[in-house]
Design goal:
With 132 residues, this protein is α/β, with parallel strands linked by helices. The chain has a single domain, classed as Rossmann fold. The chain contains 5 helices and 5 strands; from the N terminus they run E-H-E-H-E-H-E-H-E-H. It has a 5-stranded parallel beta sheet with strand order 2-1-3-4-5, sandwiched between helices. Strand 3, helix 3 (67-76) and strand 4 form a beta-alpha-beta unit. Helix 2 runs parallel beside helix 3 (67-76). The longest helix is centred in the last third of the chain and has 23 residues, at 109-131. It starts with 6 loop residues before the first strand and ends with a helix.
């Protein structure tokens, strides 16, 4: 397992393709570690409870409990991980609801995919700077 500077990331998305694209983008980055994947809302909540990630990349459209429901549950617990919503459905109402429920970031998959990775890198650098 990684050291204290490692940022633990959970990917919650029902698309295997998106999960593998995220994994390919995150794995080579020093200081980032993917601790798990979830493909539906129930699995996501269980994984967050068990794996205690520092950050979660969360899709809105998840089977079972949707991403907004997962977000609402996560943010009730402290300390809550940083939540990066990554969706194909960047509608204003979703963005507003996600923000209201406590999402830290909200990105559109097709246009802002790289921004989710950039945020993880920034969070890891901030974490490492605090420790030193």
């Amino acid at each position: 397992m990684g050291n204290d500077d490692t940022l633990k990331v959970l990917i919650a998305d029902d698309s295997v393709m998106i999960c593998s694209r995220l994994t390919e983008a995150i794995q080579p980055v020093p200081g980032l570690e993917i601790v798990g994947e979830a493909h539906d809302g129930v699995e996501a909540l269980q994984a967050i409870g068990t794996l205690k990630p520092d950050a979660v990349i969360l899709d809105i459209r998840l089977p079972g409990i949707n991403g907004l429901g997962v977000l609402e549950e996560i943010k009730k617990k402290q300390p809550a991980p940083v939540i990066i919503m990554l969706t194909n459905f960047p509608y204003l109402q979703y963005r507003q609801q996600a923000t209201t429920l406590g999402a830290d970031y909200f990105f559109e998959k097709s246009l802002e995919f790289g921004k989710a990775i950039d945020v993880l890198i920034k969070l890891q650098k901030e974490r490492a700077a605090k420790k030193s």
